Amino acid sequence: MKAKSVLAAVLALSALAGCGGAPGGGDEDKAAATPSATAEAKPDISKAGNVTLRVWDQNVRGGQNAEIEELNKQFQAKYPNVTIERTKKSFEDLLKTVKLAASGDDAPDVIQVNQGRGTMGEIVKAGLLRPVDDYAKVYDWESRYSSTLLDLNRFSSDGAEFGSGELYGLSQMGEIVGVFYNKDKVTTPPTTLTEFEASLQQAKDAGDTPIMFGNLEKWPGIHNFESVLGQTADKQAIRDFVFAREGASFDNPEFQAGATKIKEWVDKGYFNKDFNGTDYDPAWQSFAKGDSWYLIAGTWVTADLAEQMGDKVGFMLMPGQDPNAPVSLGGEDLPFTISSASKVPDVAAAYIDFLTDANAAKVLVDTNNLPAMKGAPTPSTGVSVEVAQAWQKLNDADGVIPYLDYTTPTFYDDISSAIQELLAGKQSPTEFTAGVQEAYDKWAESR
Amino acid sequence: MAVAAPLEAASREGSPGERPPGEPRLVGYLYLLPAFVVFAGFVLYPLYRAAYISLWDWDGLTAGTWAGFDNYAEVFTDEDLRAAFVHALILLLFYAVLPLLIGLALAGVMARARVRGLAFFRAVLFLPQVVAMVVVALMWKMIYQPTDGALNRFLGWFGIEGRSWLGDFNLALPSVGLVGTYVYFGLAMVLLTAGVQKIPTSLYDAARVDGAGPFREFLAVTLPGLRGEIAVALTLTTIYALRNFDLVYITTSGGPGNATSVPAFQVFSRAFESGQVGSAAAVGITLTVIIFIISLGINRIAERST
């Protein structure tokens, strides 16, 4: 009796569930979204009627939140018929919910979507984002950014090719992962890798911690490793690998040299001893307290460091072979994209235009952010000046290399774990590059 | 209504005498219906969907492709996934076995001595269980901090060099496990002390008359008397251990390397981070089956020996 009714229940349920269809299969008509109308002239938003624009962004920190709030206020003042309904989520929260949000029936009109194959690639493949090339032409967006930065927001419409194809959005802020230094300890900042290593040894000999590093969260290791990698490998080779271009590889002598170099730094004691067990935030906080000479970190900590250290903190690009050809991990923050389900793409595009124009660049500088746009005003005081100059120099030299974790959907996991193992001596540099290559090949075969 | 009519008919026929005593009336199932609908909608159907999705290779957004049992094969062949299940079994020791032993020891002591302010102590020891897991995890993350964490500073007083508790490949898993012990020993203790109070004092008197020492008394009276409670405590803590996610997510994100990765963390990371929803479902279903088998085993053993 019992067994029979359980069986009946299971049968009834499978009938209910409508066995047979592939999960997600009903949405096939959505794939490769093409805009229903192509914009040919700047739309007049004030005539768009009463519109509610739903925006999901990740600007939760002090200066970033201030910047968006100010621009939202200005946009709504300019177009009183538009109401912005803003949802803010931290980077990590956004990363976990963005796919669900974008695929829902009432997806937000404007969404900040992380670059790379893990997020943007998947969403583009599902046809959930509207390409913005037509608006780019109308608003002349391409003149605002360097081509390297625009490429980061490009995908082919089937999601297969990254770094080329359609443009899907625009970013506001530039990012550099560079080297912050304590001016009390470092009197003349090193300009080449050799000088940098000499300075690290000097710090070590003085009994200080050369570089403060917190890698408990796993991702900071990517930044430290890739900063070094940029100095041992050709920048084009790194870009080709991240964009998965023909013939690119990870397991090659140049990449092995990067792995060997950073392991050497670990062995020589150039990092604090327990970096794999130290949190990211306490790490930069102890650098701010003067516990180390250097910190390899992204420009997103600039405002916090400036607040705690005043004029004692300096910023430089990772020193390399040639001071005139700097290479640095960096890029831009998450691009604002338009959902293909949005009923008001014109308003959404006007909003994105407003967030990235000359006025926005000024607001960004005033709120201590680093604008990604060309010709932005330079800040007047503090470490922000050095950051802005470094950004200028890096872009003039076309030295930006993109984050390795953009490479495949699982690459964040693959490489962050592997780096922890490399640094702890669980894997040799050659085992490391071979292992990462294997994870990449597994994806490349199935793409 | 079509269902209800024959049921009513059956109940009318079922007057006393025609039906063997104790045989439930069919109408009884009708009373089950509301609860069953909720259960089916929120447990059985999602379970069925998960099992169904686990047979597909699906990224969560575009149409999936049929994978058959490939995802399950991966659970057993993929080194990282296999390691995750091994870690979960090791955590069983810290989440279930250790709390039970501590709980038993405390219960054994409380069975003999009437402690003043017992309720107070019990409440204090039970406290970790009440605090949200996220808070506990953040707190322990601070305690385990290598440079100025409480644990290393404490060890420093005795001249012992501190360790990188969560960053060391060998120490990370036990360190996470001990947080589990801290959380769940209170639960085991409360269950077991309640059980102890149920054991008739005459049994203890008899044991003492027969000349049993405290240890003998524990083995001969307390332990057998607590069999039911032990089964409950073990079942609960085992389930917590195997489905443990929040603690690992907050303290180590599965690191260093993959040293603390557990199945539930893999489910999350595959489903929400790397777009391998089919594989995530397969891991989830495998985990469900393992939990089911282990708790069934525990209850079988407990029942057999009564």
Automatic annotation (TrEMBL), chain A:
Keywords: Signal, Transport
Chain segments carrying region Disordered: 23-44
Residue ranges that the Swiss-Prot or TrEMBL entry lists as coiled coil: none
Listed InterPro entries: SBP
Cleaved signal peptide residues: 1-17
A Pfam family assignment: SBP_bac_8
Cell membrane in keyword set: no
Similarity comment: family membership: Belongs to the bacterial solute-binding protein 1 family.
PANTHER family noted in UniProt: MALTOSE-BINDING PERIPLASMIC PROTEIN, MALTOSE_MALTODEXTRIN-BINDING PERIPLASMIC PROTEIN
Designated name of the protein: Extracellular solute-binding protein
Organism: Solirubrobacter deserti
From TrEMBL, chain B:
Membrane topology: Multi-pass membrane protein
Region (Disordered): 1-20
Entries under PANTHER family matching the protein: ABC TRANSPORTER PERMEASE PROTEIN, DIACETYLCHITOBIOSE UPTAKE SYSTEM PERMEASE PROTEIN NGCF
Superkingdom of this protein's organism: Bacteria
Location(s) in or outside the cell: Cell membrane
Ranges that cross the membrane: 29-48, 84-107, 119-140, 171-197, 218-242, 277-298
Entry protein name: Sugar ABC transporter permease
CDD domains named in the record: TM_PBP2
Start and end residues of each ABC transmembrane type-1 domain: 85-298
Protein family membership: Belongs to the binding-protein-dependent transport system permease family.
InterPro entries: ABC_transporter_permease, MetI-like, MetI-like_sf
Primary location: membrane
Organism: Solirubrobacter deserti
Gene3D superfamilies referenced in this protein's UniProt entry, alphabetically: MetI-like
Keywords of this entry: Cell membrane, Membrane, Transmembrane, Transmembrane helix, Transport
Pfam families: BPD_transp_1
